[in-house]
Structures are given as structure tokens and as C-alpha cells.
């Protein structure tokens, strides 16, 4: 990270604006030379959120076109620049998602705003490709308690979807999920459940009835039912989520069971963090129930062990694998699960050697 006051950064008649707040800026990044800040705090915030990942790419994107009279050369430069801009949009999208999964909502904002600005340049100001950026900004503001700002971004997302005939079910499920989050956060539980039901419908249409994507909607619905003091309904939904994840992770484990090499990571960081938070939350709920279900708790611990094994964190895989092994003791009818736990522990110990 590097920035300095550059007296030549603001030539007469040209205003440089802060990357984060759009106020007049004189502090310039000395690496890319194209990004400006009004103060060092904003520069540090942007660097942490996304700028360190895209600084060299910005240099390349802003490189002037080579002087040439050939139309083919100009077209090639334009095509390459567009490709780099799309890559920049992708990086900003992934970084914003990563911060959301970690619930570091203040760090989401610079990455999500960058995502939105460059998506507008690449796709246009009314394109459906802007919706994921609006939703990330809404999630960050929900997490920060800025509900009016979240509502504003969601209104823009809804308007964009409405203006896009044949919008994909993926976008629709993400929109309804974020709307549900806002309603749940503001205590509008009936509206939240309606939005999450729509989320589940579109996710199931896109990914299937047994998908882990769809089960995320069930998980959020369960949280609302808990707030309504309806633990029995919440437990039923949690069971659906747990079964979906356990089945999915077992299938992934089958692919490495015969391999002598370390498994490739099946999840990116954001996916792993989100799945871990979900499964741990359900496991804690099961352990606090008046009528504990050791078989269900063992299955959840086994799921967490598989998740971390597939994310190449063998220490955590062993931790949860041993927890599952303890929980399964004395349950004679769980022979298949006991064997799966035993095999996982063998894999984790082997990779740690």
C-alpha cells in the first residue's frame, strides 16, 4: 500500500474524487496512479477491501491505446481492455462476497461499490448484471443497520429485474433472499417468510430440490421461526438443511475416497465460511434442545469434518471428526455413519502426516 500527496494529480480544470466518498481528493495511490482519496483512512479502507487485488490491473486498463492508423489494432486494444474490465468486475464481486461471508460489512462497501461502478461501465446503467452489486451493497447495509440505504439498493435491484424480461432464476432467488433478510432484520417476519419462500422456489427451479443453494433459504426461514418462538418448525427446517448438506458432502467425499493424493478444494473461501457458519449454528441448536438427538448432532459434526477436509483444513477436519465419533458411540443403528466417520478420520490423519 502506498499513497502520497501529488501536486500534479489535479491539473487545472480536472477534478479528482475520492474513491470511497466522491469528495475532492489530493491523495494519490503511487502504484496505479489512477486512484485518489480524500484522506489516509479512506485509502487504508479501500486497500484492505479490494484495492490491493486490483491495483496492477487498473494500470493495465488505463494504459493508452498504441498509436496506430489500423482499425484492426484499435479493435484489438478495445477487446483486450474490455476483457480486463470484466476481470476487474469479477475480482470486485468475489472480494465483496468474501467480506459478506465473514460478516465484515464495512469492508464489503468499497469492493461492492467498485463492482457496481465498473459493471455500469461494461454493461450499461440498466443491465441485469448490476443486480448482484446492488444486493451485496444491500446486505452490507443490513449488516451495518442502515436499513433505509439497504432498501434503496434493493429498490434499484427490483427495478432492474422488472425491466429485464426473462430474468434468470438465479438472480430472482438472490433478490428474494436479500429482501427476506431486510424484512427479517426489521421485524417484518411474515413478509420475510414470503420472500424466503420465493427464494426457495426459484433456487429449486434453478438448482434442484436437494441443492444446498435452496437449503440456504430454509435456513433463513428457520431463523425467522425461532424469532417467532416456533422452535419445532425451525428444527424441521434445520433438519432439511442438515440432510441436504450431508448428502452433498458425502458425494464429494466419494470422489476422493479412493485417491491417494490430497483432495482439491471444492469450495472457495466465502462458500466454506458460509457453510461452516450454517452447520455450526444448526449443531449448536441441536445440542441445546430439550430432547437432544445425538445421531443428528453426529451427522452435523461429520458434515463439518467433511467440509473442512474438502477445504484442506485437516486440523479442523480431525476436530469435528472426533466430535462426531464421540456422538455416535452407543448408537448401534448408525453403522453406515460410523464407518464414514472412521474413514474420514483416516483421511485427515494421513494428510496431516
Topology:
Elements: E1 3-5, E2 27-29, E3 36-37, H1 40-61, H2 71-101, H3 105-123, H4 131-143, H5 147-162, H6 169-185, H7 189-207, H8 212-227, H9 231-254, H10 269-288, H11 294-310, H12 314-328, H13 335-352
Helix pairs in contact: 1-2, 1-3, 2-3, 2-4, 2-10, 3-4, 4-5, 4-6, 5-6, 6-7, 7-8, 8-9, 9-10, 9-11, 10-11, 11-12, 11-13, 12-13
GO molecular function: zinc ion binding
Protein name: MYND-type domain-containing protein
Domain MYND-type: 18-55
Q: pLDDT under 50 segments (min length 5)?
A: 4-13
Structural class: mainly alpha
CATH topology of the domain at 230-353: Serine Threonine Protein Phosphatase 5, Tetratricopeptide repeat
SSE string, helix = H, strand = E? EEEHHHHHHHHHHHHH
CATH class of the domain at 230-353: Mainly Alpha
Query: How much is the radius of gyration in Å?
Result: 24 Å
Report, as a whole number of angstroms, the end-to-end distance: 38 Å
Number of helices: 13
Choose one word for the global shape.
Answer: globular
Kindly report the average pLDDT value.
91
Order of strands in the sheet with most strands: 1-2-3
The strand count comes to 3
CATH architecture verdict of the domain at 230-353 = Alpha Horseshoe
- Level of helix content? 55-70%
Strand content of the residues, in percent? under 5%
How would you characterize the largest beta sheet?
A: 3 strands, antiparallel
Amino acid at each position: 500500500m502506498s499513497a502520497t500527496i501529488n501536486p500534479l494529480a489535479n491539473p487545472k480544470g480536472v477534478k479528482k474524487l475520492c474513491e470511497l466518498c466522491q469528495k475532492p481528493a489530493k491523495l494519490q495511490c503511487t502504484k496505479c496512479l489512477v486512484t485518489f482519496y480524500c484522506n489516509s483512512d479512506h485509502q487504508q479502507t479501500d486497500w484492505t477491501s479490494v484495492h490491493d487485488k486490483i491495483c496492477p490491473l487498473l494500470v493495465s486498463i488505463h494504459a493508452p491505446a498504441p498509436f496506430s492508423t489500423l482499425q484492426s489494432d484499435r479493435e484489438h486494444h478495445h477487446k483486450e481492455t474490455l476483457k480486463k474490465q470484466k476481470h476487474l468486475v469479477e475480482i470486485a464481486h468475489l472480494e465483496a462476497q468474501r467480506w459478506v461471508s465473514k460478516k465484515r460489512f464495512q469492508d464489503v462497501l468499497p469492493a461492492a461499490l467498485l463492482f457496481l461502478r465498473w459493471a455500469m461501465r461494461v454493461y450499461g446503467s440498466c443491465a441485469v448484471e448490476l443486480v448482484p452489486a446492488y444486493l451485496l451493497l444491500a446486505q452490507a447495509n443490513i449488516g451495518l443497520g442502515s436499513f433505509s440505504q439497504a432498501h434503496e439498493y434493493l429498490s434499484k435491484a427490483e427495478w432492474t429485474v422488472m425491466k429485464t424480461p426473462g430474468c434468470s432464476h438465479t438472480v430472482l432467488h438472490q433478490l428474494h433472499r436479500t429482501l427476506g433478510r431486510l424484512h427479517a432484520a426489521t421485524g417484518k417476519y411474515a413478509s420475510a417468510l414470503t420472500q424466503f419462500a420465493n427464494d426457495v422456489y426459484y433456487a429449486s427451479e434453478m438448482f434442484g430440490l436437494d441443492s444446498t443453494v435452496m437449503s440456504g433459504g430454509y435456513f433463513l426461514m428457520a431463523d425467522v421461526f425461532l424469532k417467532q418462538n416456533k422452535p419445532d418448525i425451525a428444527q424441521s427446517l434445520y433438519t432439511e438443511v442438515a440432510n441436504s448438506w450431508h448428502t452433498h458432502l458425502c458425494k464429494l467425499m466419494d470422489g476422493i475416497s479412493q485417491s491417494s493424493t490430497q483432495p482439491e478444494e471444492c469450495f472457495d473461501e466465502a462458500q466454506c465460511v458460509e457453510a461452516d457458519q450454517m452447520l455450526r449454528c444448526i449443531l449448536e441448536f441441536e445440542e441445546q434442545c430439550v430432547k437432544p438427538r445425538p445421531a443428528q448432532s453426529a451427522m452435523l459434526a461429520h458434515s463439518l469434518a467433511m467440509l473442512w477436509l474438502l477445504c484442506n483444513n485437516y486440523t479442523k477436519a480431525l476436530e469435528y471428526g472426533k466430535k462426531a465419533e464421540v456422538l455416535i458411540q452407543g448408537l448401534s443403528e448408525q453403522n453406515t455413519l460410523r464407518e464414514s466417520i472412521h474413514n474420514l478420520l483416516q483421511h485427515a490423519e494421513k494428510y496431516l502426516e
